[in-house]
Write a structure and sequence with these properties.
Length: 401
């Protein structure tokens, strides 16, 4: 049986990360979405479905078939990348009878489909317009089972970290004794890390997981639940609860309830809270965001010009891939910053939303020339032993257009 992981028609809601990443490439807890699903649903082969402009970079990253469904008729397990991976829904999907689908309002969470069903139904049509097909199989309502926005992922990240300790069994083999603190929850440190000198780990609220070859410098404090990714460095930082760092990140200063997708730097002092940062982001010293209004009110976020109420009173910033900030940059509550921006000026950006490929200071942004932006990426990526591929360069051009 094939595992098909798809992003549904709400994928753009995960903006600004969604312009350069399929939903299954996002990170929360201790893993990217796709790794978690592959690990849990051990099927015979994986096929990915994403928006066309992301197909080339997705094939390059995962070395898997992407959007290859012509005449597809194999029995399959169809899983929405935006599904909240709670043990109960994962188990229901894994053990579902054939031709059973799970839905959340009008969103398809997942389905187990027979080859006979697929003889009568085009798979792409099913992904794009699932409600048309609900009468053709057993549909099971399961409310609250999908993420719809990035701030929802951040809000649940503490729970996701704890879930992943159970879902990703290799983590349990890394458990250490109380040599770094007296924990209320377990501390998991990869065997590649022999000692941590001058480091304090507090796990009163949840587990702490430190992955392969991570470096935790002296005078660092990590509060669980937290996940520190492979080859990442904590530079005498204060990592508060609810943080997940993907691979090859450098973090100093204070980070709270935030996710960094990978290959990004927040090396210096400054506060980032309730935020989601993409890849290849570099925050200059003292870059800071607000995550709480002075009146403690509900925060609204502007996505692609549309204002959306979050239902939350703590929301920080959302920063797309390849964006850079200068020293002393500050961001207002709930700001959305797009792909490949260069922002500086040492004062507060009052904007609710900044688009893609912009350059400049608060209130005085101009277009960031495409060749300059691509050139900057070509300089930055080799610093982490990576190169800008042709597919990634074409993504720059697509986003600019």
């Amino acid at each position: 049986m094939k595992l098909i992981v798809f992003e549904d028609t709400n994928a753009d809601n995960f903006y600004p990360l969604s312009v350069s990443h399929p939903v299954f490439d996002l990170w929360y807890g201790c893993s990217r979405v796709l790794k978690r699903l592959k690990y849990y649903f051990k099927q015979n082969g994986v096929i990915l479905s994403c928006r066309p402009h992301l197909a080339a970079v997705t094939r390059e990253r995962y070395k898997l078939p992407v959007n290859e469904f012509d005449n597809f008729r194999d029995e399959c397990l169809l899983v929405n990348a935006a599904m909240i991976p709670k043990p109960e829904i994962l188990n229901k999907l894994a053990t579902a009878n054939s031709d059973t689908a799970f839905i959340d309002e009008d969103i398809l969470i997942g389905a187990r489909l027979s080859s006979e069903f697929l003889e009568k139904c085009n798979l792409i049509d099913l992904i794009d317009k699932p409600s048309v097909f609900y009468s053709k199989f057993k549909a099971v309502e399961s409310e609250g089972s999908v993420f719809r926005y990035l701030w929802e992922i951040i809000d649940k990240n503490e729970e996701m970290i704890e879930n992943d300790v159970e879902l990703l069994p290799e983590i349990k083999s890394w458990e250490r004794s109380d040599e770094y603190s007296k924990p209320d929850h377990p501390i998991f440190i990869h065997p590649s890390i022999e000692t941590l000198s001058g480091v304090y780990i507090e796990s009163k609220k949840g587990p702490v997981i430190i992955d392969e070859n991570a470096v935790i410098e002296p005078r660092s404090l990590i509060q669980g639940p937290a996940y520190i990714g492979k080859d990442s460095v904590i530079m005498a930082g204060l990592i508060r609860e609810g943080c997940s760092l993907g691979p090859v990140c450098k973090v100093g200063g204070e980070l709270e309830e935030s996710i960094i997708l990978g290959y990004s730097n927040k090396s210096h002092e400054g506060f980032i809270g309730h935020a989601y940062l993409g890849e290849w982001v570099n925050l200059g010293a003292l870059t800071t965001n607000s995550d709480l209004k002075n009146n403690y009110g509900e925060i609204s976020v502007q996505l692609m010009g549309k204002v959306i109420k979050t239902g939350l009173n703590k929301v920080g910033c959302f920063i797309g891939d390849h964006t850079k900030t200068g020293i002393g940059t500050t961001f207002n509550t709930g700001i959305v910053i797009g792909f490949s921006n260069n922002l500086y000026g040492g004062s507060l950006f009052l904007e609710k939303e900044i688009g893609h490929l912009k350059w400049g200071t608060p209130g005085a942004l101009v277009d960031f020339k495409l060749d300059k932006a691509i050139g900057l990426a070509r300089k930055a990526m080799p610093r982490r032993h990576r190169e800008l591929s042709q597919a990634s360069e074409e993504l720059f051009r697509h986003i600019k257009s």
